[in-house]
Amino acid sequence: MSINIIEIKARCEFPDKIHQILKEKNAVYKGIDHQVDTYFQTNNGRLKLRQGTIENTLIFYNRPDQEGPKLSKVLLHKPTEPDSLNKVLSAAMDVKVVVDKQRHIYFIDNVKFHVDEVKGLGSFAEIEAIDETGKISIDVLQKQCDAYMALLEIKQSDLIHYSYSDMLLTANS
Fold it and tell me: For 67, which of 12, 63, 133, 161 could close a Cys bridge (C-beta 3.0–4.6 Å)?
């Protein structure tokens, strides 16, 4: 399944404040997911296997490394046996890095919110305005992302353009 996502990632000094705002806006809370993302070495884009208590997905994506809202082109596969798939992929490809996080997941319509605590990195908030149908324009997704940044009081100076995997690789080098 091919998906367009306009997303941001930001440092989050006050995760409780984000939780409260989302609760006040009647966001649907999916729960807290302990996620382990294994990133594999690829020739282009990024390939990761997410193993969680809520989400288990093989994800391939291309996304520019830039601050602020950015467009990701994403392909997803929902494995029925993620542990087995991890063993196969790890045997066939080099593991680049493993990201371990606790992720609170919320939704308002087509917009997904994460409040993350990433082992070794700290607290973060993410907003993903998602089009799974091909019916929502990039402009609308951008406007949704911008509106929720304002609502959650995420400042431009809070935004980061690296993935958690890049941040961990930099911290460990």
Answer: 161
Whole-angstrom Cα distance, residue 154 to residue 127? 10
Q: Cβ–Cβ contacts within 10 Å for residue 78, how many?
A: 10
Q: CB neighbours of 23 closer than 8 A, spacing ≥ 6?
A: 29
Domain with 39, as residue range(s), is 2-171
Check which CATH number belongs to the domain holding 64 and give it. 2.40.320.10
pTM over 0.70, yes/no: yes
Indicate the pairing of strand 2-11 with strand 111-118.
unpaired
Residue-wise pLDDT tens digits, 7-44: 999 999 999 999 999 999 999 999 999 999 999 999 99
CA distance 143 to 124: 21
Least Cα distance to 53 among 77, 74, 76, 31 occurs for 31
Report the Cα 30 to chain-centroid distance in Å.
Answer: 15
Which among 66, 9, 12 has a CA at the least distance from the CA of 20? 12
Q: Residue 51, CB half-sphere, CA atoms under 13 Å: how many?
A: 14
91, containing H or E segment: helix 82-92
* CA nearest neighbour of 128 among 63, 72, 77: 72
